[in-house]
TrEMBL record:
Name of the protein: MFS transporter
InterPro entries: MFS (IPR011701), MFS_dom (IPR020846), MFS_trans_sf (IPR036259)
Keyword Cytoplasm set for record: no
Domain Major facilitator superfamily (MFS) profile: 18-455
Transmembrane segments: 21-44, 56-77, 84-110, 116-134, 146-166, 172-193, 205-225, 231-251, 271-292, 304-323, 335-360, 366-385, 405-425, 431-450
Domain of life assignment: Bacteria
Record localization: Cell membrane
CDD domains: MFS_MMR_MDR_like
Record's keyword terms, sorted: Membrane, Transmembrane, Transmembrane helix
Species in which this protein is naturally found: Actinoallomurus vinaceus
Major site of localization recorded for this protein: membrane
Membrane topology, from the record: Multi-pass membrane protein
Amino acid sequence: MSVQTAVPVGERVREGRTLAVVSAATMLALMNYNATFSTLAAMARDLNAGTAGQTWILGSIALGTAVLLLAVGGLADDRGRKRVFVAGALTLAISSVLCALAPTTSAFVAGRLLQGGATAALLAAGLGLIGHAFPAGPERARATGVWGAMLGLGIALGPEASAGLAELAGWRAWYVAAAVASAVLAGAAVTGLRESRAEHRRSGDLPGVLTLGTGVAALLGAITLGRGGWARAEVLVLFAAAAALLAAFVAVESRTREPLLDLRLFRRADFVVATGGAFVTGVAVIGVMSYLPTVVGRVLGEPPLLAGAVLSLWAGVSFAVSLQVRRVAVQGRHLIAAGLVLCALGDVALMGLSAGWGWWRLAPGLVVSGAGSGLLNAALARLAVESVPASRTAMGSGANNTARYIGASVGVAIVVAIATSAPSLTRGADIALAASAAIALAGAVVAVAVRGRRSE
């Protein structure tokens, strides 16, 4: 009997190590992703960044992440998920050093672009490792719930940690800390993770990588520059280039024997819901919540730490709910729809912000929206790996997170455009919240209504 029980215990230890290392990396990646939100003013002064420079300081990591997510997901499945994960952790360490030492805005943006690529590797390969380590069923539901919870926890802690370190030693201190933490994670991954890859190694899809990568880069570049004026020639040229390149990507993938993204997956209802749900989450949830601390700071006159705490309350509830999603009987598309509905209700509850409010009046809306976000993070993570073949879990994660971060960039652009074009910031915030709620509700309806072949 002792011999028979030794293997399951060993497997459980390895599963625990995988979940611990991947979860810690996910939390760090999201903390770093949001670190600039609370220190932008100090960074702009130190780096002499104008309006355009500040836009790129905020948006560059999203560009680097979204461009590479699907490509590194496919690479992880074919060449080794652990290998790509370790490379991502080491790259995050190096790029964090570059950001800490950056003398100019351009140098800092270059470092953040590299951090985006590292983030893509950690997210895609990390969730792929979890999908391989935990078989479908209750254990995978628990593991993906923990992974989803780390998204919320990272969002909650990032701005606060960055602001706190800035108070002690300047805004560069965060990037020093991130470099050290990333190096430690790389070591833990080398010793604690077991390699996994698809049985069939594909030859690679360079045309797909190039057309998708440049297409997404052009799209996010247009969105980033568009905040300074949507009718400018360079913005229109980038949008046109993005449309042409993404159309070329679809054409290439439909003719390639071993595509980066198998377009036949879009015949699967679960894949459509997972990918579409991630995009809507980015547009309608992440977009408005990313800008909310700025609104709170300007309208209520709160300092960065307290304004960031508003986001922490939302993300903290998201973290707690994600950990409990495995106990919910409803799963799949219905859970995603429920999460989007809760986010919409939370947005409605946040409307009406004015200078006379205390921060506590935001709490009900933040709690409801945070609960919805928690449902979404856990449900989307699970569906991302279960809606694709078992050998392509990292690709499924890459596709899902690509949709999420493209959606987030679109959402932030929409919210900022609406909020800053209204007669007052409070009026603009209300319109932006209403628009986000409408998009979330539409996404919930589509999630329930979409039809197609179920995942195999």
